[in-house]
Amino acid sequence: MTQIPAANNLIVETDNTRWRLLLNGHDDFTTDAHVLVEAVSGDAMHYQTLFGEKHRLPDSGSLTPEQIQRVVLGWSNSDNAWHLGMMLTQDIASSRGSRWCELARWQEVEAGQPGGAATQAGTSLAYTLQRPFNLVPPKAATNGTAPQMTTQVAFGADTTAAALPMSDEASAAPATLVGETVRAAPIVESTRPSSPYVGEVYTPEQPPDTVIREDAEVYAPKPSRVLPLPDAPFKTGSWTLERDPNGVLQYRRSASWIWTRLGRALWYTFWALIYVFLSYATLNSTLALPNAGTMLPNPEILPYLGLGSAALLFILVLYILIDAILSPGLLVIDPYTRTIRMQRRDQTVWSKNANDVQSVYVSHIVEVKHKKRSGKKEPQWNVQHGEMNLQLGDKKFKCFLRVEEAEEQPVDDYITDLYEEEGVRPLTVEGVVTPMQGAAMTIAQALVVPAFYDHRTK
After folding, report:
1. Which end of the chain lies in a sparser environment, N or C, as judged by fewer CB atoms within 10 Å?
2. So where are the chain's domains?
3. CA–CA distance from 207 to each of 29, 138, 403 (Å)?
4. Which of 251, 400, 246 is nearest to 336 (CA)?
5. CB burial class (10 A; 0-12, 13-18, 19+) of residue 165?
6. What is the share, in percent, of the chain residues with pLDDT greater than 90?
7. Between the CA of residue 85 and those of 42, 165, 316, 355, 379, what are the distances in Å?
8. Quick check: 176 and 166 in contact, CB under 8 A?
C-alpha cells in the first residue's frame, strides 16, 4: 500500500480498492484504533466515533458515496496550505451546518501539483468512492480577488451539478467557483509555520497492547524491489516523452522515422524502375522468350507481370509518402490546462480535455525469459507489443501510441511476483518497469486521472 504523509501527524494509506486516513506515531498501522477514516470500493465510507463527533458527522459512523457530492482539494492563502475534504449533500449539511468536511492538509506548495502528495491522496479517494474530484488552484497573489477556477475529474459519477461554495466551517477552507480550467498563477514558495497545525485536532484513545498469538501462521515475506524506477525522458520505439522548460510534456516522434520511411520509398522506387526497364526491353527485343515451364506456359506474359509488379511498388511508394506527410508526430500534454492533443506540425489533429478522460491505459504483450547474469538465472521481459490508450467512457478507447518493435527489459522478483497473473490492474509507481509504463504514469499524473496496466503473456 502507498502511504502519503500529511500535516497534523496524519497519513493517507491507499491501494487499488481502499483508502484510509491514519493517525501516525505508532509502528503498527493494522490496529483499528489508528484508522480514523476508511473507504472501500463499492462500500460506504466509515469513520471512528470520535472523528465523527469532532466533524459533526452522522452517528451511524458511515457515509454512503451518494451522500458525498464530490472530493475537493484546494489551496488556502490564509494559512498557505492545501486542504483535502468532501462536499456533502444538503441533507447531511442541514444537520451539521456545513457541507465542507476537511480530512487532511499539506503545508508543502508542491503537494497540490500534478503527481504531488495531496493530488494523489485526493484522486485516489475520489476513485475509490467513484465521486467527482475538484482541484482548486491558488488565487492570484495580487489582491486575492482574481477569478479562481476549478478543474474536475469524474470517476463514474454524475458531474452535471455545479461546484458548490464551501462554508466557513473551517476558516482556512478553500472557496470554490465554477469555470473553465486556466493556468494557475505563479506560486510563491511558502515557509512552514513554527506553530503546530491549527484546526481540529483528533486524539484517539490509546490502542490496546498488541497480542502475539503463538499459533499464528507465518507467511514468507514478499520480495522487495531492487530495480531502479525508470526516469524521464521515456523512449518508446521512435517516440520520446520529455518535459519542456515550462513543465509541459511533449511526446515527440524522432526524425529517424521519417528518414526510414523515405529510404524504404526510394528502395521500392529503385526496384520499380528496374522492372519497368526489363519489361520495356523484353517487349522491344527480337529475341525469343525462354519457356518458363508448366508454372507459366506462355512466356509472353512475363513483361506484363513485370509492369504489374512495378505498378504495385509505385502504389506502395505513394502510400508511404502520404503516410509520412499526414501522420502526426507530436503529442502535447499540458498539466496546467489538463489537456492532451495530437499535432501534425502546427496543426491540431485531435484534442481531449481531462474531464473527458477516465484513465490512461497501457498494454503489454510479454514473453518471460531467463538469462544468466553473474552466474545465476534472472527473469527478463521480452516486450513484443505495447500500446497506450485514453479511456473515454462507455468502453471507448483512443489509441495514441503503438510500438511493435520487440524490447528486452530486465525485471526482478518483485515485478515477477506483482505481475504473476494476466489481467488489468491499477498502475502504481512501484509497479512501473518499462519506459512505456513510466510514460503512461507521467501522462496520468499530468492529467490528474488514474492509470491502468493490461498485462498479457505469450
Report:
1. C
2. 2-153, 234-255+332-457, 268-326
3. 11, 39, 53
4. 246
5. middle
6. 30
7. 20, 13, 59, 20, 44
8. yes
